[in-house]
Design goal:
Distance between the termini of chain A: 76 Å
Helix content of chain A: over 70%
CATH superfamily of chain A: Ferritin, core subunit, four-helix bundle
Strand order of the largest sheet of chain B: 2-28-27-26-25
Number of helices of chain B: 1
Number of strands of chain B: 33
Number of domains of chain A: 1
CATH architecture of chain A: Up-down Bundle
Strand content of chain A: under 5%
Number of domains of chain B: 1
CATH class of chain B: Mainly Beta
Shape of chain A: elongated
Protein name (chain A): Ferritin-like domain-containing protein
CATH class of chain A: Mainly Alpha
Number of helices of chain A: 5
CATH topology of chain B: Neuraminidase
Oligomer: heterodimer
Structural class of chain B: mainly beta
Radius of gyration of chain A: 21 Å
Protein name (chain B): Glucose/Sorbosone dehydrogenase domain-containing protein
Number of strands of chain A: 1
Amino acid sequence: MATDLAAAPILLELDDATWSKQIDRAAAWLGDALTVQEKFRKLAEDTAASLKEPHIKKYIQDIARHAAAHEELVRGLARAIGREPSGGRSLAGSVLAKGAELVADVVGLAGGARGNWKDLRQLLLASQDAMGAFAIAEQLGYALGLPKLSDPAFRAAAEKTRDHLVIQEFVLEMAPASILLHQDA
Amino acid sequence: MAVIATRTTREGLRKLPTTARPILDAADVLVPEGYAVEPVLAGLSFPCGMGFADDGSLFLLEGGSTWPTRPYMPARILRLDTASGGVSEVGVEVLGGPRGVSYRDGAIYVTVKGGYHAHVDKYDLKTNARTTIVDGLPSGGWHEPSDPMFGPDGLLYFGNGSVSQNGVSLPQGFTVDLAKHPEACDVPGQDVTLTGNNVWSRNPTTPFPFLTETGPFKPFGQRAQKGEVIRGRLKCSSGLWRCHPDGSGLELLAWGLRNPYGLAFSEAGELYATDNDYEEKGERAIAEDPDRIWHIRNAKSAHGSVRTPDWYGFPDLCGDGVPAWDETRRPRKGKPAEPLIADRPAWAGPAAFLEKPHTCECHMDFCRSDAFGHRGHVFLSQFGTYAPLNTPDPAALDRGFCVKRIDLATGENEPFVRNRQPGPASHHPGSGGIERPVDCKFHPDGRSLYVLDFGVTVVAPTHVVAYARTGALWRVTKL
């Protein structure tokens, strides 16, 4: 039977049920991103506190401050798509950060490293994870046609990329001091 | 997989959940008196091309992207029954995605950008079984394959754009391309001797982006030597071919076509190809290169008789035949170009039609119907500019974003489908007009022109992003 396509246009996967299901899935990812970001922020705070070299300490303190802002931004992203940020994640983030610090000690010792460089290296790994979480949130925004999700995530991912380069640089700069000389950073 | 297609109302199109494009409203779109325009379908993800079957089925290709090529959305080939409104999935293509489609004798032929190589697939519509009939076309860089078009001789014609943007594989093609396809480069369609000019650029794939040198027809980071001969290949980049429907008898008709995205045969059997200008940015930047439509003269020759393909100018000449290093082509942004080919072949121009730079010519179709009017004229989708990313020229900021009607015999032309306000609808909050027309095809009944709208692409001086689910299909009907 012929149908007037113009009078009754077609929506392709934009119906309420399909849309709502995908928004729920995006919100679940933002919950994971929040946990990952909390872990990174806690690690950054703890690492900054343990550092002695004044320049590196200042850089990591700045990164910890950025991380706190990004953490708040994730909560805002969830609200922007009409969902509440997942509850009970903060504790999980802190526990994961503590776990990562323990892992850093074990891995560092096995590799002959000494001192707080091990925390810096663990921070680098957590930074990669957190940076990726924001970049993925940005992609979800593009995939859903939602600039209110992609735009803030893009800006945060850009800042996290710069911060990540800084952390990586200090990990590489200080590695010989920790591994060969057993010195603190 | 099942496709979830539901019906809505015109009011429903004013409150779409995609806030990048919350409204589709024909009232914001202008067409000439005596015609009406209507939105038909909303929610497509990065649609790049379409084609009709004789029965009115419309095949829609999703899964394009911007650069970097993310996010991937399923590169689906959808079938829309324009009589019933039913939508189904014919197949899903590989990364890179489908770009053009034509129907013939119970099958569709689809060109696919792919990874290192572009290819042509055939889908049997009874079984949806896919067969690759042509493979190995150089890709992995910037441009893509064209429509596949059947000529009056029953042969399949198709093109494939250049791998590099402006003649040398450079980071302006974005870091991810260099990382994914480090060996990708242009391939000439006939032997060429190089001038030895190379291009310095940073190498973003290394831990520190030190400068490196790259030559034409070379992977990134490899120098060219003066007097070096690069052998032409049948499967080149910037080429245009024909073959039998099973892929046999492949013959190169032309090369030096930078971005031959749209192909169309006139009723007289003449073949035309759209093509787009060089970018005015980066380490080999070229300004004021007109967009164009080429007449592919070799399409009239007997199959198998082309000994030397025609050359249309890439990578050394602009669309009007002016050398890329001419004083009039000096860039406002980026480093000026130098000659790359020492023994340039004879130029196959002039173009059949020249357009302002950065309108971005995409797919096109000739009108073959008196019922619609303008029989014999070509209708051309103009995607719209990437300014200010690809040129700092403020005059280019709202070029394109329309379907143009062109009489190639006289050059007379007009925007046939456009917004009330210049530029894409998303430049004007509250507007529900068109974004970026990427294809336009006439329905087999000869009464309506369908316009495929890629959706929202946001361009900044530093980057470009696109939003999925914002693609749309429009219909223009003669009253």
